[in-house]
Fold these 2 entries.
Entry 1:
Amino acid sequence: MPKNSHPGHVILTGGSGGIGRAIVERLVGVRGARCSVLDLESDPSMMSESVRAFRCDVTDQSEVHQAVANACEWGGSPTGLVALAGIVSNDETLRIEAARWRHIISVHLDGTLFACQAVADQMAKASGGSLVTFCSVAMDFGVPGRAAYGAAKAGIRSLTKTLACEWATYGIRVNAVAPGDVRTGMYDELVGHGVINEELVKSAHALGRIAEPSEVATAVDFLLSDDSSFITGTTLYVDGGFTAKKL
């Protein structure tokens, strides 16, 4: 395998959003990879000879395994996974209902586990690969309205470390990315509705701005590539100094 290349097939869960789209564009455009996007809804404009969509509910273990199998029939054995599927939450913890709590936890934590299981099972039969999970700076701080989200992201960080230790014997590396605020369509919509004070959010980051999706994609690309060949079980903060400033 040529150094720092993605000659094969990367599977993404929740890859239709702003960050996911940026990751796909980088992997296909810069690396020449094939990408399978597993999501409840896909964006037809993303599809090409190098990108295929497979409908998948990440909270359903059997459905995830089947979707990964279908993706591998098209793209071949996976060399990488980006477990990005998630939902935004803003719930008063005192009033959050059990079903809502479980759904948020399931989409993030169960979805990450099921995707990692299904892809690692394929990788173990081949020559290993790299799995990238998604955490958040919200796991390190008390963020009002984000109890379930923060708890799920903290769980993903712990899961990432455990999988890295368990699956190293198969040649599989497992790392996490923890972004700060990122300029996505959803972020811009919240700013437009006055839900987010953009100047306040920017000032919380040491760099005085929020990230572009392409900047997160670059970090994911690094963790998927051979340039990170001796990195596993860690969390890469792509947060513009948010964590450093808060601490």
Note: Residues 10 and 246 are 34 Å apart (CA to CA).
Entry 2:
Amino acid sequence: MAKFHTTVNEVAPEPTQEKDGWRRMDYRILLGRHNVGSTEGSLYRSVFPPGAAHKKHLHTKSDELVYVIRGRGAHGQGDDEWEVGPGSCYYIPKNVPHWLRNLDPVEPVELVGVYLGAGSLEETGYVFLGEVQPHEMKVK
């Protein structure tokens, strides 16, 4: 039988690597195919310490919903970038390039998100696109 309850401390961080666009993040899929068995969606939690970033990427098979719990970051989507902080939420349609970087030299950014229609990161159709270019960094 699937487990329908967990805590963040019971879930190991995903083995993300900088070569795939993940810089110093703690990223954990809390609920998804691995413990609920569902492919309808998954819930994740990410912490971005100072200097951390999720470089430009997209998902070919899944939309994404994000809610920022704490911290100060810059979220880029398509041709725009804006500041996010506690209470910010945003929607990312599939196939839209996006990124997030921590702007604070001391405090981490913490967020939770949902992949719609994907029970794991692999099922989202994750594609790393590369570094965010200086002209794309509109928030200082």
Note: The chain has one domain: 8-136.
